[in-house]
Design a protein that fits this description.
The chain has about 325 residues and is of the alpha/beta class. The protein contains 10 helices and 12 strands. The protein folds into 2 domains: about 230 residues, P-loop containing nucleotide triphosphate hydrolases (Rossmann fold); about 70 residues, no CATH class. The strands form 2 sheets. Strands 6-7-8-3-9-10-12-11 form an 8-stranded mixed beta sheet, sandwiched between helices. Strands 2-1-4-5 form a 4-stranded antiparallel beta sheet.
C-alpha cells in the first residue's frame, strides 16, 4: 500500500456569524465551513477537488499551507501534523508546500518588480547568493513561458495569462513538492486556460510535483486530475479515479453537479436538477449534508450523517442509499 504524501483527517474549520451590529457583540453562532473533511494525496499525483462555490474547497487548501488555522483534525505531511506547528516550526516546510492563488495579482506586492518578487522566497529560506538567485528566477520565468525581460517589469504590466504564469513561477521557485492550485485559471479565456493546464502538466512531470487542484468546472478538473474528490457543504461526498467517477457516478450531488455542465459525457441513471442554495451548516445541522436538496432523502438521511466508505475498488461515497 502506498504511503500518502499528504493526508487530511477529520478537518474542522468554523467561522463566526454575527448579528446586525457586527463584531460589537459576540457571534450568534458559528458556520462549519469545513467539517469532517478527509482526503489523501500521493506523490506525483494531481487530485482534483470540485464543488460549487461556498462548499469549503479554498478553506481546505488554505489550511494545508497554513493560511487558515483549523479548529480540529489533522493535516499530515511526511509524518508532520501541520495543525500542531507554530509559525517558526512551519517555516521550513514552506519550501515543500506552496499555493497558486485565484487572484494572483492581488497576492503580490505592486511596488516590487518581478525579479525581486520571485527572489524573495529564496531570500527568506536562505537559498543561494544574489547571482544564483537571479539565474534561478530567469530559468523559472522561461519554464513558465515568460521572457528574461519580464525580470524588470511590475506585475500589473502583464496580461491576465502572464500574471497566472507568474503566480505559478513564484510557487515553483523554491522547488516545492506539493502545490495547492486554487482556481488558477478561472479568470482566463478558454485558449489560455488550455495553455496553462498543459504547462502545469508538463512541469509536474519534469519536477515530480504533487498538485491539489481546486476548481468548480468539472470539465477542467477531469482534464488534469488523476483522482477527483467531490465536496459539498464542508465534507467530501464522493471520491474516485477520474474515469471511474465519470463512468460510474453514484452520489446524487455528483450526478446533479455533472448534469449542470453542458456536453459532459457522464453515464447516470437520472439527471438531477439542483434547487435552492447551499444551507448554512452550524452545530445544530443534522444528517447527511445533502439531505436538504436531495430528491431521494428519507428520515434516516435527515438524522444521521453517512460515513465516506468504499463501495467499489478505489471509489468512495458518503450516502446511506448506496451500497447497502
Amino acid at each position: 500500500m502506498r504511503t500518502p504524501l499528504l493526508e487530511i483527517k477529520n478537518l474542522q474549520k468554523k467561522y463566526p456569524i454575527y448579528g446586525p451590529l457586527g463584531k460589537l457583540f459576540p457571534p450568534k453562532t458559528y458556520m462549519n465551513a469545513v467539517s469532517g473533511m478527509q482526503l489523501q494525496l500521493f506523490e506525483g499525483e494531481t487530485y482534483g477537488l470540485v464543488g460549487e462555490s461556498g462548499c469549503g474547497k479554498s478553506t481546505t487548501g488554505r489550511s494545508i499551507v497554513g493560511l487558515v488555522k483549523p479548529e480540529g483534525g489533522e493535516i499530515l505531511y511526511n509524518g508532520h501534523d501541520l495543525t500542531k506547528l507554530n509559525d517558526k516550526e512551519f517555516r521550513p516546510l514552506r519550501r515543500d508546500l506552496q499555493m497558486v492563488f485565484q487572484d494572483t495579482l492581488s497576492s503580490m506586492n505592486p511596488r516590487q518588480r518581478i525579479g525581486p518578487l520571485l527572489e524573495e522566497p529564496m531570500v527568506i529560506q536562505g537559498i543561494g547568493d544574489p547571482a544564483s538567485r537571479r539565474a534561478a528566477v530567469i530559468d523559472i520565468l522561461q519554464k513558465v513561458g515568460l521572457a528574461e525581460e519580464h525580470y524588470f517589469r511590475y506585475p500589473h504590466e502583464l496580461s491576465g495569462g502572464q500574471v497566472q504564469r507568474l503566480g505559478i513561477a513564484r510557487a515553483l521557485i523554491i522547488n516545492p513538492k506539493l502545490i495547492v492550485c486554487d482556481e488558477p485559471v478561472s479568470a482566463l479565456d478558454v485558449s489560455i486556460q488550455a495553455q496553462i493546464l498543459n504547462m502545469l502538466t508538463g512541469l509536474q512531470k519534469e519536477m515530480n510535483l504533487s498538485l491539489l487542484f481546486i476548481y468548480h468546472d468539472i470539465g477542467v478538473v477531469r482534464y488534469i486530475s488523476h483522482r477527483i474528490g467531490v465536496m459539498y457543504l464542508g465534507s467530501l461526498v464522493e471520491e474516485a479515479e477520474t474515469e471511474e467517477l465519470f463512468s460510474n457516478t453514484l452520489h446524487p450531488y455528483t450526478q446533479a453537479l455533472f448534469a449542470s455542465v453542458p456536453d459532459v459525457s457522464v453515464k447516470t441513471e437520472k439527471k438531477i436538477a439542483l434547487k435552492g442554495e447551499l444551507p448554512v451548516r452550524t452545530d445544530e445541522f443534522k444528517g447527511c449534508v445533502f439531505h436538504t436538496r436531495c430528491p431521494y432523502a428519507n428520515d434516516h438521511c435527515r438524522e444521521a450523517m453517512p460515513e465516506l466508505r468504499e463501495v467499489r475498488p478505489g471509489h468512495k461515497v458518503a450516502c446511506h442509499l448506496i451500497g447497502r
